[in-house]
Amino acid sequence: MNFNELGISESLINILKNNGIKKPTMVQSESIPIIKDGKDVIAEADTGTGKTLAFLLPIFENINEKSANTEVLILTPTRELAIQIYEEAIKLKESKNINILAAYGGKDIGSQLNKLKGNVHLIIATPGRLLDHIKRGTINLLKLKTFVLDEADQMLFMGFKNEVELIKKECSKKHQTLCFSATMDSAVKKLAYRYMKDPIVVSIKKDNVALDNIKQEVVETTDRWKQDSLKKVLELDNPFMAVIFCRTKRRVDNLEMALVQSGFNCEKLHSDIPQNKRERIMKNFRDAKIQYLIATDVASRGLDITGVTHIYNYDAPESVEAYIHRIGRTGRANEKGYTCMFIADKNMEILKKIEEHMNIKIPRRLI
């Protein structure tokens, strides 16, 4: 299956080729025809499987550039994700003369208001800033054709349910709804169904298939020696680009301070860091000016960064899904990846669950 067979126009295919994308991923192959056809979709696929293009490409095919209305709304839980989707949409904009607005908190509302004086075909927004615009009367969704909930599990089940319902009330009565997420359990699907009409479920689970490219290891340590163990591993590996996961914001802060003092080139990423600084950190990391990004799961959620060679689980993840989500940020596009998890006695239960789920015994690394 190629993009041509999926009904994607030559102008979009050429943009994809220029960005090194030659053939569709599984989630794109399955979702694009259904979305182009105007049907509602619930799509579940891991980070790094091409979910963003799975909805952006058919949206660009269907959008009417002559329309004076906002036709598409993409709602996302974090500013970083809004920026990431906006950057992808801007690349595709060469194929169509449409106006795109990114509306998120931390960005000057004045510049957003100026842009809204013209017609905006596609809006990529976080819930709070979008509701702000709706209250001001600067955004009108009464002629909306497509509503996308990205990271739908977080939007519906982790704090944004009320905002989503308020926004839905402002939309046209008849519109297409697309829910995309890495994980969609039955409770989230049940909620999603309330907003949708006969949705088609697309479920692509990469689990062990893509994980074949990732070498996994465990360092058995203690809380007292964990930091020293990590430093030793980092010195031995000297990775090109790595993400180090911690459980909480405080632990991110403490680890970053310790690593900086030891001379490591690192930055931290969590929700308490001001937005403009977070954007700068992410740009520097993408440009490989930062070697180590120390982050919480929430801060890094949905971020797709090419070039990450190593993942270090300084703190054990909360669940098997979180582990797969974390390590899936390396070993992309058939590249080799490496992941190392630091485990104390109290984490043995989650390690056992991960090994059972993946049907493997993760090798122990001796340092």
Number of helices: 16
Overall shape: globular
Main beta sheet: strand number and arrangement? 7 strands, parallel
Order of helices and strands: HHEHEHEHEHEHHEHEHEHEHEHEHEHEH
Label the structural class.
Answer: alpha/beta
Order of adjacent strands in the largest pleated sheet: 3-4-2-5-6-1-7
- What CATH architecture of the largest domain do you see? 3-Layer(aba) Sandwich
Query: Residue share in helices?
Result: 40-55%
Compute the number of strand runs. 13
N/C terminus separation: 46 Å
Per DSSP, what share of the residues sits in E-state strands of 2 or more residues?
A: 15-25%
Kindly provide the name of the CATH class of the largest domain.
Alpha Beta
Mean pLDDT: 87
The low-confidence runs, each spanning 5 or more residues with pLDDT under 50, are none
The CATH homologous superfamily name of the largest domain equals P-loop containing nucleotide triphosphate hydrolases
Radius of gyration: 21 Å
CATH topology of the largest domain: Rossmann fold
How many separate domains make up the residues? 2
Written account of the structure:
The strands form two sheets. The chain has a seven-stranded parallel β-sheet with strand order 3-4-2-5-6-1-7. 42% of the residues lie in helices and 17% in strands. Helix 2 runs parallel beside helix 3, helix 3 (51-62) packs across helix 4 (79-92) and helix 6 runs parallel beside helix 8 (161-170). The protein has 367 residues and is α/β, with parallel strands linked by helices. The protein has two domains: 10-205, Rossmann fold, CATH 3.40.50; 208-358, Rossmann fold.
